[in-house]
Design a protein that fits this description.
The protein folds into two domains: 242 residues, Type I PLP-dependent aspartate aminotransferase-like (Major domain) (Aspartate Aminotransferase, domain 2), CATH 3.40.640.10; 117 residues, Aspartate Aminotransferase, domain 1. It is 42% helix and 16% strand. The protein is built from 14 helices and 14 strands. 49% of the residues are buried. The mean pLDDT is 97.
C-alpha cells in the first residue's frame, strides 16, 4: 500500500468536510435552496478578496476569468502593459493578442525580482495604456510580485486598470482589493480555496465597471455585466457548477473560522520550512523573491529535475510539480497553500531526501527534515 500526498500548486488537497458537502444530493440551480448558498458565498468572497464589491463566479478554470479581464474591459487596438516573467505572465500577453489588444511586454528573467519602477517607466513612455496585467504569484517560478507597490503606481493613472492574476495568491497572502487599489483580482478554486478545478473568480472595482461600459470586444459566456445582474439575485447567468459552489461555501467557512491573518501566517511558515529544509540539503531556491504559495527548487547539478519530480510521485507518493517550458528539467516545485499543514512539509522534505539518495546526490541524510521540524515547532 502506498499513501498519496498532493503537494502540487493546483489541484491541491481538499478537506473531508468540503468533499462531504459536495457529495450531497445535487439541488437545482434555480431553486431557493441554491440561492441561499450563493448569498452566503457572495459575502464570504468579499471578505476573502477584501472588497465591498461583488466577486463574480464562473464555471471555468482560472484562465476563463483571465480572458474575461481582457474581453470585458478593453477594445481592439487598446494598449496594455503585461509583465512576462513566467508561463502565466505570458498567458496574459497571449490573451491580449487573441483579441487584438496591443501588449507592451515587460520581459523579466524568470524568477527575478520585479522592480515596480519598471511599470511606472512603461506607463510614462506609453500614454493611453488601458490596463496593467500582472501576477501576484508567478506559479511557474514560485515568485511573488510586488502587487501593492505596482497598484500604488497604477492608482495615479485614472484611465488605466490594475489587473492581477491572484490564482495562486488569493487565500495565501494579503491582496486586499479596495485598500490597495486593485481593479480586477482573479482567483481559481483549485488553489488556496481547497476545491477541485472548475470555478474561477473575479473581484471587480467600480473603476473597472466603468471601463466595462465601453468595451467593444465581443463576449458571450464570459459577459461580466450579465453575471453581475444575476449574482445580485443570488443566481448565475448560465448553469453553474452547483456542487463546487456548495463546496465553496464550506471552504470559505473554514477560511473565515481560521481567520485570514492566521491563514497567511500558516502559509508563510510552511513555505519557509520547505525552503530551509531544501537548503539544509545543499539545494538552491530558484526564485529571488519566493512566494509562500509554491517553492521552486533547483535540481542539483547533474540530476534531472523531472527525475526528481517523477521519483517523488512514483516511488514515494508525493505529487509536486516539475519545471515548465524553459525550466523543465531544471527545477521541481512543492506547494504550501490551502489545506496544508506542518506534517505535509515534513513528509515532503523526507521524500526529497529519499529521492535524492536514490538519484545519487551526496548529502547528510536527515538534515533537511531536522531543519524543517525546527522551523515548524511553533506552528
Amino acid at each position: 500500500m502506498q499513501k498519496r500526498y498532493l503537494l502540487a500548486p493546483g489541484p491541491t488537497q481538499i478537506p473531508p468536510e468540503v468533499l462531504l458537502k459536495m457529495a450531497e444530493p445535487i439541488i437545482h440551480h434555480r431553486n431557493p435552496m441554491f440561492e441561499t448558498v450563493v448569498e452566503e458565498v457572495r459575502e464570504n468572497l468579499k471578505y476573502l478578496f477584501g472588497t465591498k464589491n461583488e466577486v463574480l463566479i464562473f464555471s471555468s478554470s482560472g484562465t476563463g476569468a483571465m480572458e474575461g479581464a481582457v474581453t470585458n474591459m478593453l477594445s481592439p487596438g487598446d494598449k496594455a502593459i503585461v509583465v512576462r516573467s513566467g508561463k502565466f505572465g505570458e498567458r496574459w500577453a497571449n490573451i491580449c493578442k487573441a483579441y487584438g489588444v496591443e501588449a507592451i511586454n515587460i520581459d523579466l528573467p524568470w524568477g527575478d525580482v520585479l522592480d515596480p519602477g519598471v511599470i511606472e517607466k512603461a506607463l510614462k513612455e506609453n500614454p493611453g495604456v488601458k490596463a496593467v496585467y500582472t501576477q501576484a504569484t508567478e506559479t511557474s517560478t514560485g515568485t511573488r510580485f510586488p502587487t501593492k507597490e505596482i497598484a500604488a503606481i497604477v492608482k495615479n493613472y485614472p484611465d488605466t486598470l490594475m489587473v492581477v492574476d491572484g490564482i495562486t495568491g488569493v487565500g495565501v497572502f494579503a491582496l486586499p482589493m479596495d485598500e490597495w487599489g486593485i481593479d480586477i483580482l482573479v482567483g481559481g478554486s483549485q488553489k488556496a480555496l481547497m476545491l477541485p478545478p472548475g470555478l474561477a473568480f473575479a473581484g471587480v472595482s467600480d473603476k473597472a465597471w466603468e471601463f466595462n461600459k465601453n468595451s467593444k470586444i465581443p463576449k458571450f459566456y464570459f459577459n461580466w455585466a450579465k453575471e453581475l445582474d444575476n449574482l445580485k439575485k443570488n443566481q448565475t447567468n448560465f448553469t453553474p457548477a452547483i456542487s463546487l459552489i456548495i463546496g465553496l461555501r464550506e471552504s470559505l467557512k473554514m477560511i473565515k473560522e481560521e481567520g485570514l491573518e492566521n491563514v497567511y501566517k500558516r502559509s508563510e511558515i510552511l513555505a519557509n520550512a520547505t525552503r530551509e529544509g531544501a537548503m539544509a540539503l545543499g539545494l538552491k531556491i530558484f526564485s529571488r523573491n519566493p512566494s509562500p504559495a509554491v517553492t521552486a527548487i533547483y535540481a542539483p547539478e547533474g540530476i534531472d529535475g523531472q527525475a526528481i519530480y517523477k521519483t517523488l510521485w512514483k516511488k514515494y507518493g508525493v505529487t509536486g510539480a516539475g519545471g515548465q517550458d524553459q525550466l523543465k528539467g531544471k527545477i521541481f516545485r512543492l506547494a504550501t497553500l490551502g489545506y496544508a499543514d506542518k506534517y505535509d512539509v515534513i513528509t515532503a522534505v523526507a521524500a526529497i531526501e529519499f529521492t535524492l539518495k536514490d538519484l545519487g546526490y551526496k548529502f547528510q541524510m536527515g538534515a533537511g527534515v531536522a531543519k524543517a521540524v525546527d522551523c515548524l515547532k511553533d506552528l
